[in-house]
Amino acid sequence: MRGLPYLSVTSAPSVFPLIPCCGNVDFENSVTMGCLVTGYMADPLEIQWNDGSITTGIKTMGPVLSAADGLYTLSSQLTILASEWKNTTYRCKVVHNSTNTKQEKSLKECYDNLQVHPLPPTFHDLYFSRIAKITCLVSSMKTTENFNIAWEREKEGKLEFVTEDPVLHDNGTYSVVSVLSVCAEDWESREKFSCTVRSQDLPSPVKKTIFKQNGTPKAPDVYLLPPSPQEILQQEVATITCYIKGFYPKEIFVQWMQGSASISEDKFVNTVAMKNDDEQTYFLYSKLTIPAAHWNQGNTYTCIVGHEALPLYITQQSIDKSSGKPSHVNVTLVLSDAASTCY
């Protein structure tokens, strides 16, 4: 009886680039990078750095046979001055003649300053349009090559999002904003939403998750402060301050009005919501700057505050020169019907 013919199976290698962890490079010393080649038969295999132009600082380890599958593993390490690693791309090419394959991997300095910030929807979006716009802000990117933002959600549902074009800043870095729009009811149900960022600046994707935080909502107290006498004496501008404190969560809406007319946002400045000493509630200031003549004419100015813990979501305080004290003035803002749905 004749024996079975001998079968020769040739397997192409898998190639993995190896770089130092972000932040672990001391630029006064040397740095070592590498290429790990696995899963190939013991055929001749060649590794080149930058198409063979680099011949020093290379250390090869292996090949090592795996008893489990009969395949080999080989690694090639390149050591260079850390200063040469900065802002330079190195290439590791693996040539495997038996499978007629060539693979090239790029290795470059890991940039660990890239930041990913998930931002919750604003009060305005939740209660005026009933659409929760969840933002993923990516900042301090050195490059936009191979950049991508993907969204996912905890429950089934539509994923409608818009990713804006990258913005180049004066310091040479980029930022990108991606906005996911979902129903306000979905956000209020505390469903989790995640954005995943892939970039050439990152050794692996970064995933950030956001959802409405637990906690008992607390309504804000609102106080209006008139311009100082010293400021009025100068007869140039007058500053009215709206002090809002003791609220939770921190998402809040502030709008100013002169009489029954809304004042444009470029006329007033809101601080960020800051934690009170109790570490459980927030406060902020909103400052409206107007011509001193408008204040002296007796116009009425109203600070409108929107927050989910308020009985009707909106409260306001008004002030004018004649009284010099805050008072309530009826102001109407049209909010979306809380029972409506965006589906």
TrEMBL record:
<dbReference type="Pfam" id="PF07654">
    <property type="entry name" value="C1-set"/>
</dbReference>
<feature type="domain" description="Ig-like">
    <location>
        <begin position="129"/>
        <end position="211"/>
    </location>
</feature>
<protein>
    <recommendedName>
        <fullName>Ig-like domain-containing protein</fullName>
    </recommendedName>
</protein>
<dbReference type="InterPro" id="IPR003597">
    <property type="entry name" value="Ig_C1-set"/>
</dbReference>
<dbReference type="InterPro" id="IPR007110">
    <property type="entry name" value="Ig-like_dom"/>
</dbReference>
<dbReference type="InterPro" id="IPR036179">
    <property type="entry name" value="Ig-like_dom_sf"/>
</dbReference>
<dbReference type="InterPro" id="IPR013783">
    <property type="entry name" value="Ig-like_fold"/>
</dbReference>
<dbReference type="InterPro" id="IPR050380">
    <property type="entry name" value="Immune_Resp_Modulators"/>
</dbReference>
<dbReference type="InterPro" id="IPR003006">
    <property type="entry name" value="Ig/MHC_CS"/>
</dbReference>
<keyword id="KW-0393">Immunoglobulin domain</keyword>
<feature type="domain" description="Ig-like">
    <location>
        <begin position="220"/>
        <end position="320"/>
    </location>
</feature>
<feature type="domain" description="Ig-like">
    <location>
        <begin position="13"/>
        <end position="108"/>
    </location>
</feature>
